[in-house]
Structures are given as C-alpha cells and as structure tokens.
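Predict the holo structure. Ligand: nicotinamide-adenine-dinucleotide.
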Amino acid sequence: MNKTIAVIRGDGIGPEIVNEAIKVLDKIAEKYGHTFTYDDVDMGGIAIDKWGDPLPQAMLDKCLAADSVLLGAVGGPKWEGLPGPQRPEKGLLRLRAGMGLYSNLRPAKLWPQLAQASPLKPSIVEKGIDFLVVRELISGIYFGEHKTVEENGEKVATDVMLYAEHEIERIGRIAFETAMKRRKKVTCVDKANVLDTSRLWRAVLHRIKEEYPEVEYGEMFVDNASMQLVKDPSQFDVIVTGNMFGDILSDEASMLTGTIGMIPSSSLGDGTRGMYEPIHGSAPDIAGQNKANPIGTILSAAMMLKYSFGMDAEAAAIEAAVNKALNDGLRTADMMAEGCIPASCSEMGDAIAARL
Ligand code: NAD
C-alpha cells in the first residue's frame, strides 16, 4: 500500500518522539512492502514562530489531503503568555474541528512488566487494568464561547458548555460499538446531578442502549468515577464521556498504568482518516535531552496502521516489538525500575525497530 502521512512534530519532546515512531514505521514499510510518504506540517509553537499562526490554513489543508496524521505534541512555556486564539493548543483544537474528529479513544492498559510502576497497591493492580476512555472531542466546554468582561469593577469570566443531541449520539454509538468488540460494558461518566448537558447525554444514551441489549450500561458522576478509577479500575471496560471530563479522567487513567509516556490515542470522525498522538503533552522539562519515552507515539502509529489503514498484522507486530523490548528490561527514565536497562528516547526507538 502507498500511504501519505501528515507528520506534525510540534514542540518540546514532539520532534524526538515522532522521529522514533517514523523509525518504526520505516521498518514496517520495509518488512511488509508498503510505501509511507511523510508530509511535514507545522503546528503549535513552531508554527507561531514561523507563520504567526498556530495552524495556518495551508497546514490544515496538508492534513486534509493526507491519508492520516501523526502528531507529537504542541505547546510550551515560550508561548504561554499569548492571547487565547494565538496559543499553540488552539492549533490542535482547530485541527480536530477542521478534520471533523469527534471521537477520541484513549486505551488505559497495564503492561504486566510495568506493574510495579503503577502507584496503586499490588492488590488493586492484580485485578487487571484494561479499559478505554471514549472522549467527545469537538464540542462541550472547550468549544463553547469563552469571554471575560468587566462587571461592577471586577472581571467576570464565562465558558459555555454546549452539547447537541447529534453530537452525543455519534460518540455514544462509537462507545457501544467499541464495547461490543471488548467486554461489552459501557459506563457514561457525567455530572447529571448538576448539569443539563449531562442530563441530555443520559437521555440520548438511554435511547442508544436499547439497540445494544448485550451491552451492560451504567452511569456514574464524574467525581465518583475519579475515585473509582483509583479504588477499583478493573470494573471499567468502556467509559464514554464529554470533552473536559474525558481530558481529565484519561490523564488520571494513564498514571494508573505506570507512566503517561506509554499511552497512545486515536481521533476519528466519519471516515478512515484519523489523527494519532500520545496523550501526554510536550514535556518542556525534558525536551531536547533524548530522555522522553517514545512508546506512546510508537503505539499511536500502530493504532494508525490498524484503524486508518486496515493493517492489523503490522499494528500487532509493533505491539509485540514493544512487548519484547519491555521483556528485555529496557526502560526510559520515566519507567525505570531496579535491575532494568536504562534507555534513551532514541535507544528505545532503535530497540523496538530492531525487534520487528
Ligand atoms: P506533559 O504531559 O507535557 O508533562 C507532564 C509530566 O509528564 C512532565 O513531568 C513530563 O516530563 C512527563 N512526560 C510527559 N510525556 C512524557 C514522555 N513521553 N516521556 C517521559 N515523561 C513524559 O503535561 P504539561 O506539563 O501539563 O504540559 C506541557 C505542555 O504541553 C503545555 O504547553 C501543554 O499545553 C501542552 N500539552 C499539549 C498536548 C498535546 O499536544 N496534545 C497535551 C497536553 C499538554
């Protein structure tokens, strides 16, 4: 197959981790006879510096013309003082909206080799951690109106949280379809005791659940869910939730599995073209030091092969190579443990590519 991949290296550790994912993709192309063509796209801080805009239209067009998009991470302290619309993260929000990527899948799975890196007690970890957060990505409070006004001599800020039925319906369907391929359990996480948007989520999901009688459906308030994730994460299979709750809970979930550096994600809309990125940010504290864990990005590339290109065997080969590297004791600094072999970002990429 010939596939064009728009590559957004971004800021901070972005270029380092994306380079390792490309190393692995090149090895896959060589082994399985595919051709991957990479089209570099500027987004985030680097685009602000070069073009004065976190996502110039020409860059979005490149992503829309590609078969899929691979992203490292964007943002950093250098651009933090800029006004909202000019910030690096705005580029990411515009990319998601411009590509119509409404569903964000974030798997939280414990690799047995990293069990001791989990902050949870062994008695909890032993029960297993393997769930998926299905997060709505292009609506809700991050996309509602944001404004700050002067009232009675002080500043007053508002952020509007808005959901339309069709936005809940399409993400709800993805959650139920995904659950059908897993352990057939969906938990809707919301704040229906306070928010109208949450009550609408529940009403729409009740309609959908009638079509999936095999799926066990439950609901949980977000404050309780954040507690249950720590108390007994084995109870979850598919969590479906809105944009902001999903953002927060999936970061919490990532820590349960040991390190945020291991978790990939996919963002998809109606077609097969998607955007794939690790769930962590640009980690400015370790940028440029060849210390970052590239596995979240490498596994994101594997998700791209599986979900956008239908290359199931190739994706499985990458996961197996990661597993072998971990079995052989290689660890980047974020997951280092006694008796293991320290690996830099590029050494980890080399090790995984060599095990393919
Ligand atoms: P972060 O995820 O970048 O870092 C949090 C902590 O995790 C840091 O200690 C960092 O060193 C560590 N970490 C993250 N990824 C790692 C990896 N691959 N290997 C080893 N350690 C890793 O979150 P933050 O510090 O809150 O944000 C930093 C910047 O990233 C901000 O500008 C933020 O807006 C941006 N951000 C971007 C994205 C994205 O591009 N999708 C997502 C989240 C945050």
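Residues 13, 17, 73-76, 89, 92, 260-261, 277, 280-286, 292-293, 296, 334 surround nicotinamide-adenine-dinucleotide (CB under 6 Å). The CA atoms of residues 131 and 237 lie 4 Å apart.
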